[in-house]
Amino acid sequence: MSLWEAFVALILGLVEGLTEFAPVSSTGHMIIVDDFLFQTKELYSPEVANTFKIVIQLGSILAVVVLMWDRFMNLLGLKKMPGQSTTGPRLNLLTVLIGLIPAGIFGVLFDDYIDEYLFSTKTVVIGLVIGALLMIAADWFRPGRPKVVTVDQITYKQALMVGLIQCLSLWPGFSRSGSTISGGVLLGMSHRAAADFTFIMAVPIMAGASFLSLLKRWEYITFDAVPFFIVGFISAFVFALISIRFFLKLINRVKLVPFAIYRLVLAAVIYFVFL
Question: Helix, strand, or coil here: 189?
Fold first, then answer.
């Protein structure tokens, strides 16, 4: 691996880690940065470049597991969260599963179509704009006072509705966290509760989708590309650790509109400069 290839892997991992869990679309940023700056499909091949983008997502997933380890142990019944009542409501595995089912079904049904037709700069711009409008609507039309303050108070019905809204994130540029946090807020959750639920759901659905994609692309993880993958994976993991901590402290304070404005500005720049 050359120094240039290591630099490309580092920067793309940084982009993935910083944007995966912010409501700005990591997939959109990855496509844009790669298409206009690096062209990794020219370094190796289009198949290896797409496989790389899947591998480094696993670095971001690992960061969530590390940061929310206590919560995942709690879901498995192996640890009690600080201050959690033994008789009050508690997030359980069924709630998470209900939230995962809709996007899981749609992802399996339309995976090949999405890979073939929706991974382009033009589709990303569309996703950025429509996703931004949903986020603005969530902040403007949310209930005055959240009924769900913590993730432990989320009901099965709310989990299903958030799961249905999460299907929008299958469109590149829409953003998984943008869609699910917006949906949660519109359903009466606090921004932090919606964000926590988003991150918890992200681990199994992203891990499952990534592993299925890797099984189909295993032949493209070639010996000469492994160092490239490793650098990107570590970079995504480190920067995801940083961004998740920052985002969870920020989201209740600034809400969604600032992120929506950023998305609209980015979409405009891409459209007028590149398209």
Answer: strand
pLDDT of residue 140: 94
Beta-carbon contacts of 26 under 8 Å, excluding residues fewer than 6 positions away, are 15, 16, 19, 20, 57, 60, 175
Least Cα distance to 16 among 63, 70, 73, 56 occurs for: 56
Residues 115 and 26: beta-carbon distance below 8 Å: no
Say if residues 9 and 159 touch (Cβ distance below 8 Å): no
Maximum distance among all Cα pairs of the chain, rounded to whole angstroms: 58
Dist CA 78 CA 55 (whole Å) = 29
> Angle CA(201)–CA(202)–CA(204) in degrees, nearest 5?
75
pLDDT tier at 65 (50, 70, 90 boundaries)? very high
Residue 61 in tokens:
């997933």
For tokens 């999405």, the residue is 114
How many alpha carbons lie under 13 Å from residue 165 in its C-beta half-sphere? 27
What the block records as the tokens of 86 is 């033994």
Structural contact between residues 245 and 24, judged by C-beta atoms closer than 8 angstroms: no
Q: In the beta sheet, which residues pair with residue 148?
A: 189
pLDDT at 86 over 80: no
